[in-house]
Amino acid sequence: MKLVYDIPVIAKNPKIKVIDYKKADIDFIVEIDNPVYKFSMPGKVQMGPFGINYVQDMNADKRVFTVPVCPTLSSTS
């Protein structure tokens, strides 16, 4: 049996339809940019200290180790 790894369907579409409860008329379904597809900081501000960095953790021997960011798998833009 071959295992297939995939992402949920919600993450594959650049736009999604959501219910806008603030509208009073009948047509309250609106289309928005999908935040799960691609996240952008509001106002296009830089993430600053919240950006993608190396991850540090501690193993069972209480030694700290660093997992570097893989530039081919992550992006700050």
How is this structure best described in words?
- This protein is mainly beta.
- It has a domain at 1-38.
- The protein has no helices and four strands.
- It has strands at 15-19, 29-33, 55-58, 64-67.
- The strands form two sheets. A two-stranded antiparallel sheet has the order 1-2. The protein has a two-stranded antiparallel ribbon with strand order 3-4.
- A hairpin with a 5-residue loop joins strand 3 (55-58) and strand 4.
- It is elongated and about 60 Å long.
- The model has no long low-confidence stretch (mean pLDDT 75).
Total beta strand runs: 4
Distance between the termini: 37 Å
Number of H- or I-type helical stretches: 0
Shape descriptor reads elongated
Outline the fold blueprint.
Elements: E1 15-19, E2 29-33, E3 55-58, E4 64-67
Antiparallel strand pairs: 1-2, 3-4
Task: Name the features.
77 residues, mainly beta, two-stranded antiparallel sheet
Question: Outline of this structure?
Answer:
This protein has no helices and four strands. A hairpin with a 5-residue loop joins β3 and β4.
